Amino acid sequence: MFSFTTIKDYHAALQVNQLSCAQVVDFYLSQIEKNSSLHSFLEVFREEAKQRALELDTSRAQGIPMGKLHGVVVGIKDVLCYKDHKVSAASKILENYTAVYSASAIEKLLSEGAIIIGRQNCDEFAMGSSNENSAFGPVKNGLDPDKVPGGSSGGSAVGVQMDMCMVSLGSDTGGSVRQPADFCGVVGLKPSYGRISRYGLIAYASSFDQIGIFSKSVEDAAIVLETIAGQDEMDSTVSNLPVPTYSQLTIGTPKKVAYFKETISHPDLDPEMKTQFIAYIKELEQNGYTVEAIDFSLLSYVVPTYYVLTTAEASSNLSRYDGVKFGHRTQQSISDLTELYKLSRTEGFGEEVQRRILLGTFVLSAGYFDAYFTKAQQVRKQLVNFTEDFFSKYDILISPTVPSTAFNLGENHQTPTQMFLADIYTVYANLVGIPAISIPLFKHSNGMPFGLQVMSASFHEEALFAFSATQMNKNHSA
Ligand code: GLN
Q1: 306 Cα–ligand 1 center, Å
Q2: Which among 152, 202, 427 is the best mutation to test ligand 1's pocket, defined by most ligand atoms within 8 Å of the CB?
Q3: Is the CB of 404 under 6 A from ligand 1?
Q4: Angle at 185 between CA 182 and CA 189, to 5 degrees
Q5: I need a labelling partner for 144 at 20 to 30 A (CA). Which of 162, 398, 433, 446 fits?
């Protein structure tokens, strides 16, 4: 039976004809079938994936050089446009909508030989931390189906976790790749803001959104990033900095590490996770790293700042779904245009999305704009200044990725703000635009995995990869 380790090993096996892409696609399709109760996929591109695998096998047999992602089986979150395929943002409002063009990241995947196997379930419009906000039903964690996989890219995390694809693309606005990666025991990367084009990514909060990558190894995340990153005339916020060959891990492991005192003294951090994190710091020091504890008095502001700014941006971005230009249109009889908008949007959007549109509209309203939106922008600016100063002194910032391990389905429903706390360690990287990765280093005595979050300066993904690869490899050989 096929067992996936890394893209590099897979390519080596293809090259000596030990395997074919067609066999591998069959393996993944059977895994998807076997795990269908987890509800990771909203749609599987079965016949198309098989066809593409055959084409790739033929091209290899003809001696045509393999692309970087030749035969790599990829799942995509249901917020990425793939021409002539449905994309719904897991929302009733876009149910049965078909993409009219492909996201730039998708184009790049395909041009390097990837096989897209299906679109993966997520929280509606990427809003959530548990994947329970999908209009099409929740995703379950493959390690324990009573537990959530995290969100919003839960389907993409479970896809990699349960070998239903080799890698997957999610989106990360405040932790939606790293948090589910942490809950599922896989690698989850959010690159620097502007590293990957957002063209064709359904917007939640445009100054925060980034496409992210799930994988089993740091090296694979690096290969995918170097394939999909870089300049794009379709997105004016994408950087034109050259894209390094991240997968070659050319730089040495950075040694100057720091963490924020407030992250480990936070009352919501699970005590056992705290103990393991402190033991890990000691281990780093024994291995020749310097690890300093830094004051970060702004920690308690990051979640409120994130929710003021992202809901404001969401209320504007989601105004296009009005039943006229885009989205579901009510079938009820209406007396005027306002009623058409009102009914269409009420029927089409789920509760959490409605809550955020209302909150965002409120913080942008004339009487409250300065008190909320302007204030939050000021905090964001202070965070950016603090971060620039921080990375002039240190290479790497570490923290737990999430304060707890995966919780039970239905457990965090009492108040929405309780759920927001799952994002306390992840939203900072999106507020300031730095890259961040969650790597599955730890295991809790409750049986669930949890991750280490590693962050570096903006556009210094090389540092983050070098550090993380060393940590993962050390862990595996231990
Ligand atoms: N959980 C966060 C939220 O609900 C993050 C979502 C995301 O990164 N897309 O907004």
Answers
A1: 10
A2: 152
A3: no
A4: 55
A5: 398
Whole-number Å distance between alpha carbons of 209 and 171: 7
Tokens of 443: 């295991």
From the CA of 129, how far away is ligand 1's center (Å)? Answer: 6
Tell me the C-alpha to C-alpha distance, in Å, between residue 219 and each of 188, 417, 423, 439. Answer: 12, 36, 26, 12
- Does the C-beta of 175 come closer than 6 Å to ligand 1? yes
Q: Could you tell me the pTM of the whole model?
A: 0.97
List pLDDT tens digits, range 196-235.
Answer: 999 999 999 999 999 999 999 999 999 999 999 999 999 9
- Is the CB of residue 313 below 6 angstroms from any atom belonging to ligand 1? no
426 C-alpha to ligand 1 centroid (Å): 9
Domain positions in the chain: 1-478
Fold observed for domain 1-478:
Amidase signature (AS) enzymes (3.90.1300)
**Shortest CA distance to 44 belongs to which of 203, 204, 155?**
155
Question: Is 153 a pocket residue for ligand 1 (Cβ < 6 Å)?
Answer: no
Write out pLDDT tens, residues 252-269. Answer: 889 999 999 999 999 999
